[in-house]
Amino acid sequence: HDGLSRLALAAEPGAAGLTLLPYFEGERTPNLPDATAALTGMTLASTTRENLARAAVEGMLSGLGAGLDALRALDVPLRRAVLIGGGAQSEAVREIAPAVFGMPVEVPSPGEYVALGAARQAASVLD
Fold first, then answer.
1. Candidate CATH numbers 3.30.420.40, 3.10.450.50, 1.10.10.10, 3.40.50.300; the one for domain 2-126
2. Parallel, antiparallel, or unpaired for β 81-82 and 38-40?
3. Using omega within 30 degrees of 0 as the cis cutoff, is the peptide bond preceding 13 cis?
4. CA angle (45, 2, 105) in 5-degree steps
5. For residue 21, what are the contacts with CB-CB under 8 A and spacing of at least 6?
6. Which residues in the chain come in under a pLDDT of 70?
7. Which helix (H) or strand (E) holds 94?
8. pLDDT score recorded for residue 117
9. Comparing C-alpha atoms, which of 71, 57, 55 is closest to residue 103?
10. Which DSSP letter does residue 15 get?
11. How far lies 65's CA from each of 28, 82, 84, 94, 112, in Å?
12. Residue pLDDT, tens place only, 30-51
């Protein structure tokens, strides 16, 4: 994560117009299983290692942001986002996420949050 973070944080927000849609294996939110990745906005000036790294981080976070937008469209009140998993260990992800999400972001200490969430979902259908 460190090398990618250093590169991404060295670039300006917006990556000089580069946009990465990181749908390398489809997308889950929205449900687009056949979606493919795309990199747009490439020019000789904009295609630097730093901008490519920034576009990758911003693209990944924008995909997560689409999920937040779907919740907002349903009038779900959102106060903060909690990032877990390997990507949350990236300094660039932690620093860029609040701007992309438009809300504060928390990153708890590593733990079994995915398993805990799955257990809570399973328990909710038993009631």
1. 3.30.420.40
2. unpaired
3. no
4. 95
5. 35, 37, 38, 39, 59
6. 127
7. helix 91-101
8. 84
9. 71
10. G
11. 12, 12, 14, 14, 23
12. 788 999 999 999 999 999 999 9
Q: 112: which 2 tokens?
A: 């079994």
d(CA 26, CA 80) in angstroms, rounded, equals 27
Give the chain's length: 127
Residue type, 89: Q
Residue ranges of domains in the chain: 2-126
68 contacts: CB under 8 Å, gap ≥ 6 = 78, 81, 101, 103
CA distance 6 to 75: 36
